Amino acid sequence: MTGGSGRRYNARTPHGGSAAVQSPLYRHVISQITQKLESGEWRSGETIPSEPRLAQQFHVSVGTIRKAIDELVAGQILVRHQGRGTFVSTHSEDHYRYHFFHIVDADGTKRFPAVELHAFRRGRADGSEAAKLGLKRGAPVIRVVNLLRLDDDPVVLDRITIAAQQFPGLTRAIFVARPGTIYHLYQERYGVSVIRAVERLRAVTADGATGKALGVRAGDPLLEIERVAYTYRDRPVELRVSQVNTGHHAYLSELGKGA
Amino acid sequence: MTGGSGRRYNARTPHGGSAAVQSPLYRHVISQITQKLESGEWRSGETIPSEPRLAQQFHVSVGTIRKAIDELVAGQILVRHQGRGTFVSTHSEDHYRYHFFHIVDADGTKRFPAVELHAFRRGRADGSEAAKLGLKRGAPVIRVVNLLRLDDDPVVLDRITIAAQQFPGLTRAIFVARPGTIYHLYQERYGVSVIRAVERLRAVTADGATGKALGVRAGDPLLEIERVAYTYRDRPVELRVSQVNTGHHAYLSELGKGA
DNA sequence: AAGTGGTCTAGACCACCAT
DNA sequence: TGGTGGTCTAGACCACTTA
């Protein structure tokens, strides 16, 4: 044959055919790859099969495989390395660490924070937590409070809520002893990869306890960030409410250029 | 010939050839297209030549043209419409209007604000403005203050600074009479297309005047957004400091999924 | 019916990495 | 040296819009 391929469209709708032309082939490939990631068949940090091999497995051309991988790379799910292969993104990579941390100091530099655990408790989801995490009210949850320091200054107080069922056996000791970021822990120990998050920002006033932790007076303004983090297929993983002292730092948001 | 094309690499470095392989062809195409946009040869809202025509003009294959356009579409610079053509993005399109407006109400819905002009004055750039707009201190600027209402409630107070030279003949009347958004005005009347912006968010306390405009008490917390908006080649266009009453609204930020 | 973008294929060569 | 991704080409057919 010479090159055309319209037949592929029909190859997937052989019977009846009255149905619409559905999604293009590369969407199907994306879905298949996502499933392998979801199921843990391909794990974070590992290389996935080469493009020619995938083309064989999925019975499509290399060009179609490339188009599918292109999208997953754009979404930070995969990373390509010329000459080495294509890898499943890891939260231990620098570019990914910063992807979910948006606090910068006065001159715009991002520094990575030192984390200090203030609390680790088990409890039951209230109405708001349940709604945002897709749980039933009263479902068992783990709540964590972390203080983040930048250059020794306390800047962020995180209140984290996760579903206990999704992280069986998680203890304070495990949480404290983790080598990297929290998302790296979710990923390495529980196979839960945070790939997306939605944040809502508001200005609030510090209450006594929070103010004390962040070294500001009660009533001083703080930036509050409510984040819901998601894994594949938009499944919610974590609810995190951060309060930020923006006296010497700011939240950086870039619009456009791949945003 | 059958298909290969490595020669192209050399075709662009015919003499000496000791130089590195420079950028790929599609980068060069992106640059050429960007220049046509920058110079105003292709204006916003207009269609650009078809892909086969561009391939001829630039002496590359359609595939290479497509790859270049792919990137510009991802960056919201161009918009494709199957069957109609490829168009230069306009700030009058809905998807673009919301691209630079991130305030949502309690249930997460974006509504477009009603704008009320509070001030329009000419002045000279102070040190901070000059630095952020790439001007010399004391350069002539225009300063605008706008109040944005959502469902009749005053929610955002914008203080805008632009270089007077870039917007010759701009008057209060023109500013008020514009049909669409401010960025649409920049684009339509002055050929200046805002395509990217960087925002820094902080929590501050309302001063008397701002509080009055937003219907809050002096000392209440407000979300302050400092935005620098850029056009092609990262040239700064506008400095905008917004103060937001986040009592019933929030700033929405999405991380991941093309961010 | 003609023209445009959208999808898919097949194959070439280049650049980079590991061995 | 062999394998991997990166670039580029050429050409087919599909889907959509406009006239």
TrEMBL record, chains A, B:
Location of the region described as Disordered in the Swiss-Prot/TrEMBL record: 1-21
Protein name: GntR family transcriptional regulator
Positions of the HTH gntR-type domain: 23-91
Entry's Gene Ontology molecular function annotations: DNA binding; DNA-binding transcription factor activity
Transmembrane segments: none
GO biological process: negative regulation of DNA-templated transcription
PANTHER family for the chain: MANNOSYL-D-GLYCERATE TRANSPORT/METABOLISM SYSTEM REPRESSOR MNGR-RELATED (PTHR44846), MANNOSYL-D-GLYCERATE TRANSPORT_METABOLISM SYSTEM REPRESSOR MNGR-RELATED (PTHR44846:SF1)
UniProt keyword annotations, A-Z: DNA-binding, Transcription, Transcription regulation
SUPFAM superfamilies: Chorismate lyase-like, Winged helix' DNA-binding domain
Keyword NAD attributed: no
Coiled-coil regions listed in the entry: none
